[in-house]
Amino acid sequence: MNSFDKTYIIIPVFNEEKVIRKTISELKKYFNNIIVINDGSTDSTNIELDKLKIITINHPINLGQGASIKTGIEFVLNYTNAEAVITFDADGQHSVEDAKIFAKKIFETEKKIIFGSRFLKNENNIPFLKKIILKIAIYLTNLLFRVKLTDTHNGLKAFKIEALREIEINIEGYAFETEIIIDVSKKNISYMELPTNIIYTEYSKAKGQSVLNSIRIFEDIMIRLFKK
Amino acid sequence: MIIKLLLCGVFLLAFIYSILRPSKSIFSKFFLIFGSILGFISTIGEKYIIVVANFLGVGRGTDLIIYVALVVIFFFIFYTLNRFHKIKRDISALSRDISLRDVNKDK
Fold this sequence. Notes:
The structure holds 2 protein chains of 2 kinds. By secondary structure, chain A is α/β, with parallel strands linked by helices. Chain A has a single domain (7-227), classed as Alpha-Beta Complex (Spore Coat Polysaccharide Biosynthesis Protein SpsA, Chain A). Chain A has 9 helices and 7 strands, in the order βαβαβαβαβαβααβαα. Chain A has helices at 20-28, 45-50, 65-79, 96-108, 128-145, 161-166, 176-186, 202-207, 211-227; strands at residues 7-13, 34-39, 55-59, 84-87, 113-117, 157-160, 191-195. The longest helix of chain A is centred in the middle third of the chain and has 18 residues, at 128-145. In chain B, 85% of the residues lie in helices and 0% in strands. In chain B, α1 packs antiparallel against α2 (26-44) and α3 (46-56) packs across α4 (61-102). Chain B is elongated and about 65 Å long. The termini of chain B are far apart. The A-B interface holds A 37, 53-61, 63-64, 67, 70-71, 74-75, 78-79, 170, 172, 223 and B 85, 88-89, 91-92, 95-96, 98-100, 102-105, 107.
């Protein structure tokens, strides 16, 4: 049994009918255990998913990316014997080669989480405005939660299964990424970073996080901070 | 004078409703009772409001009403947002349970 067989890929999906088949087909060449959480898609994503031999979990309504990841994690913890999990975006931004590296490294390292970073290599790929917003978010996150990360909102991550038992996701939206970092900081969960090569296509840029989303993320973080 | 009568009627109804309405939350009951009494007094008893305003060092009774109203409104928004988030969390948990129960594992 190699490291790819012990690893589950969690992919949250919302209205990705144009790219979902390609994304999953690429992953399926190397990974057998792929879980897609269809987060209340209203286009033909579910029809595309039906054609693929993967585990599909359908949210009856759109709950958000954080809620989808949480559903995936609950499924992995309760219904599988996975030893590691990789979170992967559905919009074709992430490279399968990176996922393969993450799947190998999570078993080689003693660290419990591997965060993907766009700023270790390939920084020039990032659109200018996005880079500015990300840099501000990274600076504030490192300052507020006493971590040392070069990228705080990269969807590509690898977790050892014991790390997933320690992390609690309560934020339904994009800000769950910060929530994970808060838990990492509070519970002293060991982590490392690996470079990722994000492919920014016109499609992924249109689907990605807008400035408005950054404000929503900030709001979610504030709520989480004042809750605990 | 008509507007005063109308407002008094509204606040009186709100007060009766707050007393009769079965409520799990003491906070919301208190909020309704306190709000309706405050509204009633500020409509018909300007002189009492002025006395309280002077005691607190606020120039006019109207100013005091505005300050109190602002605090109440912000408190209400905060309370409503909290309730809204709790409902959202409950819906998410419910949806997740349904999804995991229905998951098609035999694909």
